[in-house]
Amino acid sequence: MEKQKIKDKKLPVGFTFSFPCAQTKLDEAVLVTWTKKFKASGVEGADVVKLLNKAIKKRGDYEADIMAVVNDTVGTMMTCGFDDQRCEVGIIIGTGTNACYMEELRHIDLVEGDEGRMCINTEWGAFGDDGSLEDIRTEFDREIDRGSVNPGKQLFEKMASGMYMGELVRLILVKMAKEGLLFEGRITPELLTKGKIETKHVSAIEKTKEGLKKCMEILTRLGVEPSDEDCLAVQHVCTIVSFRSANLISATLGGILSRLKENKGVARLRTTVGIDGSLYKMHPQYARRLHKTVRRLVPDSDVRFLLSESGSAKGAAMVTAVAYRLTEQARQIQQTLAEFRLSKTQLLEVKKRMRVEIERGLKKNTHEEATVKMLPTFVRSTPDGTENGDFLALDLGGTNFRVLLVKIRSGKRRTVEMHNKIYAIPIEVMQGTGEELFDHIVYCISDFLDYMGMKSARLPLGFTFSFPCHQTSLDAGILVTWTKGFKATDCEGEDVVELLREAIKRKEEFELDVVAIVNDTVGTMMTCAYEEPTCEVGLIAGTGSNACYMEEMRNIEIVEGNEGRMCVNMEWGAFGDNGCLDDIRTQYDQAVDENSLNEGKQRYEKMCSGMYLGEIVRQILIDLTKRGFLFRGQISETLKTRGIFETKFLSQIESFSRIFLQTVKELAPKCDVNFLLSEDGSGKGAALITAVGCRQRELDAQQH
């Protein structure tokens, strides 16, 4: 840093540390074990980044931001990957040997997440430490291991890497000399000295032209007085040892290549292997032998070998550069997403504003302009267990429409038996005329009654209609506004029960007693109240979002009477339509609203319901891609398509209920809330409301 005159700058640093490390993140590496004759104490089991930072701090005359700990093998792959984007394997064949490759994240159990890939440092030097290579280890391999600083460890590396190759040759020559096969049995102190034959000597001896001459020089220095025949034999020994190394590396690399092919599910693999290391580069025959053997072992792969240019330095810098870019990107992404992380203070403020809107909806003088409508449902009680009979239920709330027969039996063993059929509502019907929509509904009812063989019975019917309605009685509901993509004409401002009755008359095939119009939220509450009498709130978090609850009659100013309670359908999807949530709405919420069928309406629903969550995510993805943070800045045609990112994808990625329960507990600490999952609120619930309505009707008739 002094030489480069950059001591005053705090630069991002990449740390090439070519020893087995356990990494939990890019800038942390715990040394598993020393290799290559290193033995410094107090380092195994420690984070080498912390140790390096400590040493920099101790020195005190410069600062550094360590972004990444890089294994030299990974550095090799990254360097070659810069020149060839197909490069997905890195190999070192030098003093030590190792490999890395890009593995599918779904196969890496130690790391969370299933999408994309991650580079795996195999640390294959330890291959065989479990005894799996015992059948091919020789007496010379065992002798080398016994004399090493780490007996029983890194056995594959001791068989194949440059650090041990010269020593393997020396041990073989000693044995051959002892048996009188070389040097006329002469054994000198030099020949018996460990380390006297180095890997560079093996490389020199194997050279085609001057190899024998070099062999003579090396053996003469060892004092064994070699003959020409000795030199030929020693050259042959060197060839056998180095050839074995190339074969072993080819076999293990073959294992990686076949895995890559399997991961990709291709008939033929095309890939590039980045390669570095003194043995590969300096040995005259090594590279050719390796390439030839790999192609023989993995014939269904087209492998290009690319020599790395300073992998441990350039590669470390590249990993650091990528890490630095990703860190900055992550910071900006977090900043973007921070708007969605509402603090407890913000949520308490939303709670407070909701209370204000509830009051506005319930009061006679503010009800008209209130956005949270607080609509009376004329459901005055929850089930008491005496409900009995056969009921028909209709469920209209989305692109599918259901007709159900619900058989409710009271007594000691209360039972609810349901039969149902699902019918699709084509988009042209959803957005056609009101008459076409209700004729389609009646056609579906007719088909169901035929299917059940019940066309002659005049059954009481509950109509689950999951859209904002102003109810004037249990069996009269005026549609306030369409939501969820519906646009049928001549319905808004009309009584939907009357529209249904008129369509039944037009059909002239059957009669039904329409007892109740039901909101799915109320149905949900009633279904749960049948099982749990303390249930007094219904909540839907699905395609749309809404809530209802049992309110004191004295607080519902738009309905006459002060005694008892009535269920109020909040229609909270419209919360914020008056601008009261603008401070927490994001640019993405605004984009979703602008592109919707009902701009400016149902703003709260658009922030939190299933119909829009996927679309919010899509808007975020488009923005992050435009800023170059995702998908290499390329917005695909698919991503441009509205509605392509479905909410079910979010469900697969994130678990929405745990967070919900936890937050309710935090925001309402004095309330002991029990959450009960509703079983078919819109079907069973509609039948129960109808049953309660029939019971109430009988009571009213008796009183009059």
TrEMBL record:
Keywords: ATP-binding, Glycolysis, Kinase, Nucleotide-binding, Repeat, Transferase. It catalyses: a D-hexose + ATP = a D-hexose 6-phosphate + ADP + H(+); D-glucose + ATP = D-glucose 6-phosphate + ADP + H(+). Its EC number is 2.7.1.1. SUPFAM superfamilies: Actin-like ATPase domain. Residues 89-322, 537-657 form the Hexokinase C-terminal domain. Pathway: Carbohydrate metabolism; hexose metabolism; Carbohydrate degradation; glycolysis; D-glyceraldehyde 3-phosphate and glycerone phosphate from D-glucose: step 1/4. It holds the Pfam family Hexokinase_2. It comes from the Eukaryota. One of its GO terms (biological process) is glucose metabolic process. GO terms for molecular function: ATP binding; D-glucose binding; fructokinase activity; glucokinase activity; mannokinase activity. GO terms for cellular component: cytosol; mitochondrion. Residues 6-81, 333-530 form the Hexokinase N-terminal domain. Belongs to the hexokinase family. This is hexokinase. It comes from Stegastes partitus (bicolor damselfish).
